[in-house]
Amino acid sequence: MTDTQQDTRAGFVALIGEPNAGKSTLLNRMVGAKVSIVTHKVQTTRARIRGVALAGASQIVFVDTPGIFRPKRRLDRAMVSAAWGGAADADVVVLLIEAHRGLTEGVEAILTALEERSGPAPIALAINKIDRVPAESLLALTKKMNDRYAFTETFLISAEKGRGVEDLRDWLAGKLPEGPWLYPEDQIADLPLRMIAAEMTREKLTLRLHEELPYQLTVETEKWEERADGSARIDQIVYVARDGHKGILLGKKGETIKAVGRASREELEKFLDRRIHLFLQVKVRPNWLEERDRYGEMGLDFNDGD
Questions:
Q1: What is the pLDDT of residues 45-76, one digit of tens each?
Q2: Which class does domain 5-175 fall in?
Q3: GO cellular-component terms in the record (predicted)?
Q4: What CATH number does the domain located at 193-305 have?
């Protein structure tokens, strides 16, 4: 921290947008570590994941919300409610859109909702994936978006490549309220390690499996045992809705689940900088999408799905 406490700033920044707009990639880039699940499939972020970044004397606490979309199931409704809850609680809101998709129907719906919900928090626009379109298209999109909504500031970025991210981070740092830092200097996320570990395994499953199954499964860390040699044993359960899903997850001679376990263990060891013994078990729970406890494990409010 700085020598004079009153010079420090701290606050919450909510990243909102459609699924797959790049919110998780931006969060991980800002924080400098992987704290949010990133895959090529949409709707992978289920709970609001806080990542903590430092910029000078400012501590920026990012709330990576689930993508905002038209909810159909209880889980979808709980995810969308978490997204708007994250925006409502924030000191600054950043709307992330994709440069090559522009002002889509989904973005239009978010802007309409922002107009209805808008509070005192400044709202910035971040046009992401700028490397996918020519400069003249970016200028036209910037004008179109700002004609549609009075954004406090607009940034052109590539979260994946890091372009423009520093400018956005510096601007956010200056917009936060003055006050003491909210987390210790070396903390990068406020999620329990058990949940981060479960998210890492779920990411590996999402990357490995076909289109439908990932939204029908969830991963929970059942047990975390610290060992005398400095390593840890982690037992996780993968819940699926159908018997057929269990077979897909296990794969021929258990090859799929073994490969997922290996990939997740390697990433956990890198993240935690120590040896990990990871054990995965697959269980069929036909109604897990309607179970209150499952939502608590995901950091979601079961009642938000009503």
A1: 444 556 788 888 998 888 766 555 454 555 55
A2: alpha beta
A3: cytosol; plasma membrane
A4: 3.30.300.20
